[in-house]
Amino acid sequence: MAKRKILIADDNQQIRLLVGAALRSLGHDIVQAVDGEDALEKAIAEQPDLVLLDVTMPKLDGFEVLGFLRKQPETASTKVIMLTTAAQQDDLQHGADLGCDEYLTKPFDPKALRAVVEKVVAEMDS
Ligand SMILES: [Mg+2]
After folding, report:
1. What is the 56 CA–ligand 1 centroid distance (Å)?
2. Every domain of the chain and the residues it spans
C-alpha cells in the first residue's frame, strides 16, 4: 500500500493521538488540525490525500469544512472520512449529500479505523 499524507481534524487531542498512532503504524504521514478553520487551512496548504474529519468542532463544523473542500478545485476530490459520535441518519445523509467518502462512528477501535482507512486508500490506488 502506498504511503499517504493524512490530515486528522479533531478538536479532541486524545482522538488525534489515537488516530495518529494507528495510521503511523501503517506507514502514513500525519498532519493534525485542532478545529474547523485549522482543518480547512491545512487541507489546502498541505494537500493531504485523505482527511479524517470530526463533525463537532469549534469555529467550523465538519460539514462546513467538507462543503468548502468540495468547492475548492484543489480539494474537490480529496478523500474524506467523517468522524461522528453517533451514526445518526441525518448526519449520514448530510455527509453523503456533501460528498464524504466514508464514515467512522466514535468510539472506534484502532482496528476499525485501520480497516476503513485501508479501504479508502485502496480505492485511490486502484
Ligand atoms: Mg469534536
Report:
1. 4
2. 5-121
66, 99 contact by CB (below 8 A): yes
CA nearest to 19, candidates 47, 44, 11, 96: 11
pLDDT tens per residue, range 36-82: 999 999 999 999 999 999 999 999 999 999 999 999 999 999 999 99
**For 19-30, what is each residue's pLDDT tens digit?**
999 999 999 999
Assess if CATH 3.30.530.20 describes domain 5-121: no
Distance 55 CA to ligand 1 centre (A): 6
Candidates 99, 55, 48, 96; CA nearest to 74 is 48
**54 C-alpha to ligand 1 centroid (Å):** 6
Sign of CA pseudo-dihedral 99, 4, 38, 108: positive
In angstroms, the CA 102 to CA 93 distance is 12
